[in-house]
Structures are given as structure tokens and as C-alpha cells.
Amino acid sequence: MPWQETGPMEERMRFVVAAKEKRLSMVSLCELFGIAPKTGYKWLDRFEEKGIEGLEECSRRPLRNSRAISAKVSGQLLGLRRQHPTWGARKLLAWLEARHRGTAWPAASTVTELLKRHELVRARQSGPRVYQRRTSPLATPDAPNAVWAGDFKGYFLVGNGTRCDPLTVTDTFSRYLLCCKALPSQRGDTVRAALETTFREYGLPRVFRTDNGAPFGAPSSGLLSSLAVWLIKLGVRPEYIDPGRPQQNGRHERMHLTLKQETAQPPARDIRSQQHRFEAFCHEYNDERPHEALGQKPPGSFYSSSPRSFPRRLPEVEYPGHYHRRQVKQCGDIKWVGLLVRLSNSLKGQTVGLCEVDDDSWDIYFGHVLLGRFHKALPHLGLVRVSRKPLPMSPV
């Protein structure tokens, strides 16, 4: 005798009939049919309300799609994304919400799915991240102009074959882009001229953070280059990240990625046109582009110029009254306790200060920067690097 096949409707009718007979408790009856009591009561309620039709399978389609986007909203999002190809869902929403109040905007995840469907988002390639703790702490950007970060984005050729070295400077606290200058090279004099223009416009920071490569640093005492000497005389402390650790200047490096995507892919036809792109980017980045780390507000909402203005004359460095002063010779040396102490050619003609540590040792400073320690008993060692806080600086 073949097995008798039954469908869902037949099983539900059998269950309803058995439930009406009340020979078994609801729990036992549901266990016999292999369903939960909640499901059994649901079938009985549907049968009481609609009869046999109530036992038919209902559509599982939701009454409303919480991720649906109207054609108007979708068009606004896609149009803004095409104008700003590097903006993610959160930035797009923050920009639109600030200008179209009262409009119901979808969630960021829904916008991301919309961008993926229209192939406006590329899959991110992830890899292992390795971080190494710095041995000495970097300055804390606790207010605007406390720490500025500077670097070269990396040179590229514009359309006519001319080299372009973009020099960038940001305020680390507010992420405000202070300078984005298309320079023909990384020479110290061109960098100094660009920084001087920036200082005259925005004032002086307390700390200027860079890598230790030229023209910012030099393989000498205190890593001081001619540019660093100029900064110190202005009352700005140079600060160097560890070699091979760009993540220590991560906020600035992240801005470089956006700068490259927005202005140099592809490059402009010449340096002047490229500079126009940089200037337009600065305006948008500072005053319009929502920044996720700033609560989707632009950096301009958090930045204010420094009260320390650029001086008319370059001041000389000052030292506490108990310091001994020596002028650095043209060869980069000073003479102390009858011995020559090698410092740096970058310091020639400058005045350094010596603070006695004990009877045979002195710490040698240029401005507020400790160059090293000189031991009279071990003159062949020259300056020895020591861990010690810099001299106090003027507040921002």
C-alpha cells in the first residue's frame, strides 16, 4: 500500500478538526503534529476569523521596506556622490541634512547599498595593521594651533611634464588645511617662503610636526636643519615622528589620500592649473566637506587663527639667566672648557645655551630644543642624546 501524501493545507485542517474535538490538550496535540503551541493557536485563530481560507499560506513580504529610497532622494544622493567621488555615505548625508532640513533621509548603511548597486563604491582591500608604540610621547593637540603637521604629499608630473611637489600643512586639532602649495621642488628656501606666507595668514603654532627628512630635519645634533633653526627662533618647536612610522602623523596622511583622489587623478595641465585645484579643494575641505572625526562638521567649524602673530623681525633665542651662552662657529663647533664640541653647520652664527648638570657635564640647548649632553671626561663621544623635556615655551 503506497504512502499517502498530504500537503500543508490538509495537515492544518486535520489539526483544526482534532483541536475542535478536544480529546487532547493543546500542548499534546501540537507535539503530535510537530508544531509549537504558538503556531497551533495562530491556525485556530485564522480558522475562526476566515474559515478554510485562513489556513492558506500568507505572503511573507513585509508591508513596507525600511530600506526603500524614493527616486528623488536617490537622485540627490547619487548626484552628490558623482560630484564628490571620495565622499562616503555619512558625509553625503551630513551635507544634505544641513541643507535640506525636514527631509527624511535613509540610514548610512542604506546609502552605502545604493552606492554599491550603482557601482560607485569599490571594495576595500584590507591587510594586517602593525603599530609600534613610540618611545617618547608626541605633543597633544588640545586646542587649535597647539600642533601643526606638515609634509609633502609626494611629487607627480602635471600634464606638461613639470614636477609638482605639494607642500601641505594642517592644524592637527581641527584638521583645518592651512596650506596646500604646488612647489617645483622640496628645497628649504621654497618651503620656508610657503610657511612664512601661512604663518602671516594664520599666526604661529606651538609645535610643528613632520618627518625627519629634508628639508624639515637633518642628520645632525637635534636633527636640526636650517628650516628647523628658523622655526625655533620664531618660538615654534619642531617635532619629528619616528622613521618609517607615518601613522604617528596619521591625520595628515589620511588627508593626503583625499587630496590625491580629488585633485591629482588625473593631474592638471600645468602648475598654475594644479594650484587652482588645490585652492578649490582647500575651500571645500575646510568649509563644506563633513569630517567624520568632527561629528560630520567641516574643520572650519573648529579652527581659529593663532593669537601669536608672525614677527616683523626674526627674534634671537633667549635662555634662563643661569645658562652659559656660546656662539657657534662657521664650522658648526663651539669651544667649551678648552675643548671643541661639534654641533651642526645649521647652527653656525647662532647662540646656544649650556646648563650645568654636574661638575663635568652640560646640557646644550638651542632655544627650547635640547641638542644633547656633553661630558668633559668623555670628549670623544661628542654630544650624547638624553631624554629630557624641552624648555618651557610661550603659550598659544
How many alpha or pi helices?
10
The total domain count is 4
Distance between the termini: 96 Å
CATH superfamily of the largest domain: Ribonuclease H-like superfamily/Ribonuclease H
**Which term fits the overall shape?**
elongated
Low-confidence stretches: 127-135, 392-396
CATH architecture of the largest domain: 2-Layer Sandwich
Structure, explained:
It is a single chain. With 396 residues, the protein is an alpha+beta fold. It folds into four domains: 8-55; 71-117, Orthogonal Bundle (Arc Repressor Mutant, subunit A), CATH 1.10.10; 147-301, Ribonuclease H-like superfamily/Ribonuclease H (Nucleotidyltransferase, domain 5, 2-Layer Sandwich); 324-384, no CATH class. The chain has ten helices and 13 strands.
In brief, what are we looking at here?
This protein is of the alpha+beta class and 396 residues long. The chain is built from 10 helices and 13 strands. The C terminus is likely disordered.
Topology:
Elements: H1 8-21, H2 26-33, H3 37-50, H4 71-83, H5 89-99, H6 108-117, E1 147-152, E2 156-157, E3 163-171, E4 177-183, H7 188-202, E5 207-210, H8 226-233, E6 237-240, H9 250-263, H10 271-287, E7 324-327, E8 333-336, E9 339-342, E10 351-358, E11 361-366, E12 369-375, E13 383-384
Parallel strand pairs: 1-5, 5-6
Antiparallel strand pairs: 1-3, 2-3, 3-4, 7-10, 8-9, 10-11, 11-12, 12-13
Helix pairs in contact: 1-2, 1-3, 2-3
